[in-house]
């Protein structure tokens, strides 16, 4: 299935906010969840497990924890539970992170 077919594209005159995903600046619609923004950006995984399996948002309501990302230096953030905002810096997580924000477990 084509990822682009799953999402409605925003209208061209809709105001946008800029977020940074793994160093790439992307424009997204304000008011949407970070998980929705990441899915519409690439459709790719938002994190990888400690064993290298790819994961991405699944439930979109904070239950599955598959959408964990690092947001503004805070790891283990549920992308489906926060709204995008101007200047947000997002990094995909590779492996497990410590709960206090340290490096890989």
The percentage helix is under 10%
Structural class: mainly beta
Low-confidence runs of at least 5 consecutive residues:
none
Please give the number of β-strands.
7
Order of helices and strands: EEHEEEEE
Which whole number gives the mean pLDDT?
85
> What sort of overall outline do the alpha carbons produce when their principal axes are compared?
globular
Give the termini distance in whole angstroms: 35 Å
Report the sheet-strand fraction: 25-35%
- Number of discrete helical segments: 1
| Gyration radius, in Å | 14 Å
Biggest beta sheet attributes: 7 strands, mixed
Protein described:
This protein is mainly β and 105 residues long. Helix content is 8%, strand content 28%. Strand 5 and strand 6 form a beta hairpin. The radius of gyration is 14 Å and the shape is globular. The chain has one helix and seven strands; from the N terminus they run E-E-H-E-E-E-E-E.
Brief account:
The protein has one helix at residues 34-41, and strands spanning 17-21, 24-28, 47-48, 54-55, 68-71, 74-78, 89-94. The model has no long low-confidence stretch (mean pLDDT 85).
Features:
1 helix; seven-stranded mixed sheet; 105 residues; mainly beta; globular; single chain
Helix and strand topology:
Blueprint: E1 17-21, E2 24-28, H1 34-41, E3 47-48, E4 54-55, E5 68-71, E6 74-78, E7 89-94
Parallel strand pairs: 1-7, 3-7
Antiparallel strand pairs: 1-2, 3-4, 5-6, 5-7
């Amino acid at each position: 299935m084509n990822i682009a077919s799953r999402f409605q594209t925003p209208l061209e005159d809709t105001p946008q906010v800029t977020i940074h995903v793994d160093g790439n600046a992307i424009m997204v619609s304000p008011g949407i969840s970070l998980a929705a923004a990441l899915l519409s950006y690439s459709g790719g995984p938002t994190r990888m497990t400690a064993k290298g399996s790819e994961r991405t948002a699944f439930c979109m309501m904070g239950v599955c924890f598959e959408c964990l990302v690092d947001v503004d230096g805070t790891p283990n953030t549920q992308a489906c539970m926060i709204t995008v905002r101007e200047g947000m810096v997002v990094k995909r997580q590779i492996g497990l992170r410590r709960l206090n924000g340290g490096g890989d477990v």
